[in-house]
Specification:
This protein is about 65% helix and about 15% strand. It has helices at about 5-10, 15-20, 20-30, 40-50, 50-55, 60-70, 125-195, 200-235, 260-270, 270-290, 315-340, 355-365, 395-460, 465-500, and strands at about 30-35, 75-85, 95, 100, 110-125, 235-245, 295-310, 375, 380-385. The protein is elongated and about 175 Å long.
Length: about 500
């Protein structure tokens, strides 16, 4: 069985474990609560199954990823890209409203293109360096918020459990009152037989039995309703008749000192923890805002490649043939000029005016590059240092806004400490008053019980009327309920005080 002190302190640490078991807890939530159920077990089940608390717990996931993301920004970012495209046949423009046809180039074939690129980018400035610290402080605030929700959950479950136990005890008292009323009815009937009372006394006794039966019905309804509310706080469905509440709540003298409680609350109160973490995050925010005046560093590097393949090499072969033919014609023309010189010069060997099979094969082979025979592009790298000089007072405005936020959180923290001191004093007074009231009600119950026994004995011997007996029974029933309410008022005040402190104090 897990102690309640563990539940107060271990709620943040158990968050990720509980979230990872969401599927299992979802399956468990469809089960029906039966059998013995203690307060500690109720709290354990509530931590795992209460929907409101689980929704607050989910914030821990985002807070953790915020921290990871902030640290991730300290590393370079890398990107990879790739693509393929197709261009149909035609005469594409070359600029100035011209096309290849205007330049005397015939219609070119369709083309297949592919490319890739790898890039590395890095940026470093004050915000990037300081954001991880603020993210960690924000995560601490989120953890404190989860503890706040956990403390609220513990208080809600404890109060619901106390109310359910109180209703059980109230039902027991109602049943005891019914038994006493039935005993008084039998006593009146026996007295009527011997002639010491009238029929009126019997009828009055019957009315008391009827009222006691109505009180039992009301108590049974209260028991069922309080258990349903307890199951709601736990986050599970349950069988109100099959669940047995096993925790006991004895009365004890609260040996509590205010200053010790206040010191504990300053350390453990989740609202104060959340405000402190938020204030620390705001302090980092001021530093981040000031870092906008510092220079920033940017670094980038990249490599890439491309392919370009024609659907047909006829166009490239024709171009190459044209170049060979033009060179051949030029060679012939030069040889003719050389022959007309005095003295004539020897001509050059002009070769063949046609492309060779090897040249055609080379053109075809060079075209077979799509999609992965890339031509590498030159690598690029750049380094930039930027120093902001004037940005329209926006940076100073952000600095002042961060300072105001920090100051507001300091004021809120001070206000929370004052409120906590007042609430603790009031809560401690309520616990002490509840304990004294319970002691007084115990004495009152003893006196009322003695009064009821005396009235019953006097009625038995005929020295008291039935109205005297009914009045004594009423005083006894009121005393029993007053003592019961005083007991659980004391424990309710104690639970509220523990919620303020943030840890168990009993």
């Amino acid at each position: 069985m897990i102690p309640r002190r563990w539940l107060f302190r271990a709620l943040p640490a158990a968050t990720l474990l509980l979230l990872s078991a969401a599927a299992d807890s979802g399956a468990q939530s469809r089960e029906l609560l039966t059998g013995p159920l203690s307060l500690e077990r109720s709290l354990e089940l509530a931590v795992s199954n209460n929907p409101s608390f689980r929704s607050v717990e989910n914030d821990a996931i985002i807070a953790d990823w915020d921290v990871r993301s902030a640290y991730g920004a300290l590393f370079p970012s890398a990107s990879a890209s790739g693509g393929m495209s197709w261009q149909g046949t035609g005469e594409p423009p070359v600029g100035g409203g011209l096309t290849l046809g205007d330049l005397g180039i015939s219609e070119q074939p369709s083309y297949y293109f592919s490319s890739y690129g790898l890039g590395l980018n890095y940026r470093l400035d004050g915000q990037v360096l300081l954001t991880p610290g603020r993210a960690k402080r924000s995560r601490e605030a989120t953890t404190a918020d989860i503890r706040t929700a956990g403390s609220t959950l513990i208080l809600g479950v404890t109060r619901a459990y106390l109310e359910a136990v109180r209703q059980d005890r109230a039902l027991t008292l109602a049943q005891q009152e019914l038994e006493r009323a039935r005993f008084n009815l039998r006593l009146a009937e026996s007295q009527l037989e011997v002639g010491t009372v009238t029929l009126l006394d019997v009828r009055q006794a019957e009315v008391q039995v009827g009222r006691a039966e109505v009180e039992v019905l009301r108590s049974e309804t209260g028991v069922e309703t309080s258990r349903l509310r307890l199951f709601q706080q736990v986050g599970l469905e349950g069988d109100t008749e099959a669940v047995e509440l096993t925790s006991e709540f004895p009365l004890f003298e609260p040996e509590l000192e205010f200053e010790a409680l206040f010191d504990m609350a300053l350390e453990w109160n989740p609202n104060l923890e959340s405000l402190r973490a938020s204030r620390e995050a705001a302090e980092v925010g001021v530093t981040i805002a000031r870092s906008a005046y510092l220079p920033s560093l940017s670094l980038s590097a990249g490599i890439g490649g491309f392919t370009r393949q024609a659907s047909s090499t006829d166009f490239a072969i024709a171009q190459a043939q044209g170049q060979v033919q033009a060179g051949y014609n030029q060679c012939l023309a030069l040889n003719e000029i050389f022959g007309r010189l005095t003295p004539p010069l020897n001509g050059q060997d002009c070769g063949s005016p046609l492309l060779s099979d090897e040249d055609i094969a080379s053109i075809n082979s060079a075209n077979e590059v799509w999609p992965f025979d890339f031509t590498k592009q030159p690598a690029t790298a750049s380094l930039t240092i930027s120093l902001p000089i004037f940005q329209g007072l926006g940076r100073q405005r952000n600095v002042e806004a961060a300072r105001v936020l920090e100051d507001d959180l300091n004021l809120q923290l001070r206000d929370q400490e004052l409120a906590l001191r007042a609430d603790l004093q009031a809560g401690l007074a309520a616990v002490r008053a509840g304990y004294r009231a319970a002691l007084i009600e115990e004495r009152n119950l003893e006196v009322a019980g003695e009064q009821q026994r005396l009235a019953q004995e006097r009625y038995r011997v005929g020295s008291a009327s039935f109205l005297d007996l009914v009045e004594a029974e009423t005083v006894l029933a009121q005393s029993e309920r007053a003592r019961l309410n005083a007991y659980y008022t004391f424990h309710d005040a104690l639970a509220s005080l523990e919620a303020l402190v943030g840890v168990p104090i009993r």
